[in-house]
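Could you please review the protein record set out just below?
***
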Amino acid sequence: MHSTKILKANDSATRIENNTDLVTEILIRLPVKSLLRFKCVSKTCLSLISNPDFCHRRNHSLTISALLLLINPHSHHTSQYEILNLDKTNSFLCNKILYFQGIKILQSCCGLLLCCGYSPEQRSKNYYVYNPIITNLEKSFDLLPNQDGRFYNRIFGMVLAYDPLTSPHYKVIGVRRSRHKFHFVIDIFSSQTTSWKRFTGKTPFEEDECVDFNGGVFCNGVIFWKTGSENTLLCFELEIERVRKFAGPENGDFLSVRIDFIGASRRNFHVLCSCKKGIDYTEYFVYEMNHDLSGWILKYRFNFDAVAISCSVTKVPTSSELFSVFRVLAIVVAEKAEDSFLVFHMAGKLIRYNLNDKSFRSLYHFDPNI
């Protein structure tokens, strides 16, 4: 009797395992740590979890849920960040304020924060990776080791790369000036090895190219940077450790296309471009990059005339003036087109601009006395 029950149980388990649709539906609902364990259970689970379609379905709702606003930018001691909730369904993010003593947040990536602080004793900067989920403050901060005595004094930019669906470990990429004039060095820190290593491949750029290394964005295993060229990106493919330049979107209806902002949403990389028509950049486009880096997809097209008027900007800014009064903070391309939006700062306000119906509303008013 006991053997019969075991045989029936094994038969049921085999039927479930052979039903890949059912197994996929089960796996999609599991937390990330459980998924990483299930990769070791069977070849079937490993194949399903590693499939790009599974990653897309698992993260179909993964998007930017909040913004961190530094509300005392002139303080040299305590940094105070207010969490601006963009997700109405997530009450956990409401009315939260973070305080950091002598540390500023540089970047966020899938829940982890890359931070920087100045050490008066060492007369240099220290870099940390902060996990806000860990309640023990000492354990929540990972201090990155200094590779050599003057490593952080020559830093041009640091980027955090973390994808919990593919690995529990993160990497930090540091770009710094070489001892040789007009050359850069790329160093890679791995939380798995807790050490730095030098990138030894070719770097197709030099110091005078004005690459924005402070504004790097990580998405699908690739780090992207804006360059001094209007419509060119620099990308670093982490898995194969290759650096190359990448052409931005083209639009034959305009004289030129300029990339003004880069960002990631729902595991997709996006750029905001201003396009020159006549004597000025008058129209704006949001493009999405194909996952295989093969090209671009046009997602949205719009202008800011109505928004500028509503924000009491008496004159719609020209392209050269625009980013002195207008700063994009986030592009959120949602699963449903009507839910996609842009968040930007203009005239002392944070504006949420719907990319589908062109409606907008104020999210936050900055204190003019700060």
